[in-house]
Amino acid sequence: MAIANRRKVIVVGSIAVAAIVAATSPLWAPRLGRKIAWLEVDKVEIAGTRLLAPHEVLAASGIRDGQHLLDDSGIWESSLLQNPVIASARVTRKLPNTLRVTVQEKTPVAFVQDEMLKVVTSSGEVLPLDPAAVQVDLPIVRGSLTDSSSLVTTHRLLSETDRLSSLDPALMSEVSEVSAASADGGTLRLVLPQGEVILTEGATPARTAQLRAVLADVARRLVSADGASAPPRVRLDLRFGDQIVVAPLSSPEIS
C-alpha cells in the first residue's frame, strides 16, 4: 500500500514539473501542454457582466472547443475588447481545466430619445444594446446625438446626469426624464413622480439632500381629498440661492 501511494505522488509531482517547464519554455509549451489532460479547457467562468449575457461574452472572446490553458490569453482579451460594450477584459487560468473571463462593461447613464431609443454613456457613446432587453433603470435624456444644433446641449445633459447619479443615486432613481430648461443645457428639468424639478448644473450634495427633504414633505402634504386619486403634481425650482420655490405644475414657470 505504501508503494502504491508513493507511485501516485511521483506521478503528480512529475506532471507539476512538466507544467512548470511548459509554462517557462515557449518552444515546448504548445506541444507538451496538449499532452497534459488537465490543461485542456472544459470550463469557462464569466464574471462582471450586467449588460451582456455570459454567452455573448464567451462568443466575443473567441474561446472555442479544444483550447488549452497554455494558449495565448492575449488573443482572447484582444477579441473581447473588440466588443463595443466591453471597456476592459482579463482572461486567467484556474487549474484544472478552467478559464476565467472577467470583463468590465462601459457604464450607460441614460436612454436618449433620438430617432429611436438608444443606450448612451456619459460621453455620448451609443452602446449597441436593445433598450427593451437591458435590465437597467435609467432616465430618458431628451436631446439628439445626430442633430448638430443640439449635440453640445445633449452632451452637457448626459455629463450632468452622470454626475448627479454618482452624487445622489437615491434622487436620480426617481427621475424618469432629463431635459434642458435653458438653451445651453446649463439648467436642467428633471421629471419625477411628484412633478418636475428645475436646477442649475453643479448642484452640491447638500443641495440635493435639501431637495429630497422637500420632496418628502411635499408628498406628505399633497394628498388628494378622497385619498384615491393621484395627488396634484408640483414644480420645485432650485435656481434661487438656497431657497426652493414650490408651485403647482400648472402655474407659469418663473423665468
Question: How would you describe this structure to a colleague?
Answer:
- The protein is an alpha/beta fold and 255 residues long.
- The chain has 2 domains: 2-105, Roll (Ubiquitin-like (UB roll)), CATH 3.10.20; 108-248, Rossmann fold, CATH 3.40.50.
- Helix content is 33%, strand content 24%.
- It has a 9-stranded mixed sheet, covered by helices on one side. Strands 1-3-2 form a 3-stranded mixed sheet.
- The longest helix has 23 residues, at 2-24.
- It is elongated.
List the helices and strands and how they pair.
Blueprint: H1 2-24, H2 29-33, E1 43-47, H3 54-61, H4 73-80, E2 86-94, E3 98-105, E4 108-113, E5 117-121, E6 126-127, E7 140-141, H5 148-167, H6 169-172, E8 177-180, E9 187-192, E10 195-200, H7 205-221, E11 234-237, E12 245-248
Parallel strand pairs: 1-3, 4-7, 7-8, 10-11
Antiparallel strand pairs: 2-3, 4-5, 5-6, 8-9, 9-10, 11-12
**SSE order in H/E notation?**
HHEHHEEEEEEHHEEEHEE
* Count of the domains: 2
Which range does the strand content fall in? 15-25%
Based on CA atoms alone, the radius of gyration comes out at 28 Å
Overall geometry: elongated
Number of helices: 7
Instruction: Work out the number of β strands.
Output: 12
The secondary-structure class comes to: alpha/beta
Quickly name the level 1 CATH class of the largest domain: Alpha Beta
Overall mean confidence score, pLDDT: 83
Largest sheet: 9 strands, mixed
Which stretches of 5+ consecutive residues score pLDDT under 50? 1-25
What is the helical fraction, as a range of percent?
A: 25-40%
Provide the CATH topology of the largest domain. Answer: Rossmann fold
